[in-house]
Write a structure and sequence with these properties.
- The complex is a heterodimer of chains A (115) and B (224).
- Helix content of chain A is 10%, strand content 39%.
- By secondary structure, chain A is mainly beta.
- Chain B contains three helices and ten strands, in the order ααββββββββββα.
- Chain B has 224 residues and is an alpha+beta fold.
- Classes of the chains: A mainly beta (115), B alpha+beta (224).
- β7 of chain A pairs antiparallel with β3 of chain B.
């Protein structure tokens, strides 16, 4: 479930957006012991010219934005993607009913950037 | 629509595969969560997220490489003492089905936990000790006589829970044939005169094996 659309218009710029994943929504609650869900987030928003410094972009993205502003149909804007993710641990039953604690990398979006 | 349902289940199985699961688990019984795993999970959930990425292919609690921690329940049975009752208190086959370990997973730590009923083992008598031995075995039964034990300990009194590191027993993380079989023997040591025969099979409350493994993904990442 992503955040309800806030009263003020959300910033159109590229940044992490709230996304809570509930394992029961995907029918996994009977084998995942904990957590029941977690805040995964996602990246959303524009990478407009001129690319602001805080948009965590590469030199290539800056150039691509410039070309896009000159020739919008020919070259797309850079993409708003995760640039820093963090892991979570999941406690679950495996196919042999053993209890497993497993560390999964790259499960939470912490930072987004224009690439 | 059936097409959408097929597409969803395809996506789900590819996600499960990336989570290291061959199929969606459907637990037959809700096995209680071992306290050690619950504590580890809670600690990770509550600890503040460090700025620099911690090494997620390392289990800090045991300071060993790994990203998967499992607890396997013992499926072995008690074996006949095979000796005059006086000395041998109990003999048990410990059998752990490790087939859940995936191809390419490397075992980096194995810890055996023996849980005894409260006060089941009093000091057998003045000047006497209890001896505990672990032998490698095959699932079919006791070790050949004269084999060296994997592990040998003497106790004046048995605590409620004993932990033994078995990593040395598993050469370079390989598990023979996907299971681990051991024979546990507890006997009254030499010397002294036992006040009463030592507690038998009813003394042992539970036996489990905690295994830490390094998944293939982690190993690839570490190599990179």
């Amino acid at each position: 479930s992503s955040a309800p659309s806030p009263a003020v218009s959300p910033s159109p710029l590229c940044k992490p957006r709230r996304l809570y994943i509930s394992f029961s929504d995907v029918g996994w609650e009977n084998w995942i012991i904990a957590p029941q869900g977690y805040l995964a987030n996602y990246c959303g928003g524009d990478c407009p010219f001129p690319l602001a410094a805080e948009l965590n972009s590469t030199n290539h993205a800056v150039l691509q934005t410039m070309v896009h502003s000159l020739d919008p149909r020919g070259t797309p804007q850079p993409c708003c993607v995760p640039v820093r993710l963090s892991p979570i641990s999941i406690l679950y039953y495996d196919n042999s009913d053993n209890v497993v604690l497993r560390h999964y990398e790259d499960m939470v979006v912490d930072e987004c950037g224009c690439r | 629509s059936p097409v959408l349902a097929a597409e969803l289940s395809r996506q789900e199985s590819s996600l499960l595969k990336s989570l290291g699961l061959s199929a969606k688990p459907s637990p037959k019984s809700a096995v209680p969560v071992p306290p050690v795993l619950w504590r580890m999970f809670q600690r990770r959930k509550t600890q503040p997220r460090p700025q620099e990425e911690p090494d997620s292919c390392r289990v800090e609690e045991f300071n060993v490489p790994g990203n998967i921690v499992r607890v396997f329940a013992d499926q072995g049975r008690f074996l006949p003492e095979g000796q005059p009752r006086g000395r041998l208190c109990l003999r048990k086959l410990l059998f752990f089905n490790l087939s859940a370990l995936e191809e390419g997973e490397r075992l980096t730590m194995a810890q055996l936990e023996l849980q005894f009923h409260h006060n089941s083992y009093q000091p057998p008598g003045p000047g006497q000790v209890l001896e505990l031995r672990l032998y490698p075995a095959s699932p079919r039964g006791p070790p050949q006589p004269g084999r060296r034990p994997l592990l040998e300990r003497s106790f004046v009194r048995m605590h409620k829970s004993l932990l033994f590191e078995l990593s040395a027993a598993l050469k370079d993380g390989k598990v023979p044939g996907g299971d681990l079989a051991l024979v546990l023997e507890i006997s009254a040591g030499d010397g002294g005169s036992p006040r009463s025969p030592c507690a038998g099979s009813d003394a042992l409350a539970a036996t489990s094996l905690l295994a830490v493994t390094l998944g293939r993904r982690c190993r690839a990442r570490r190599r990179r």
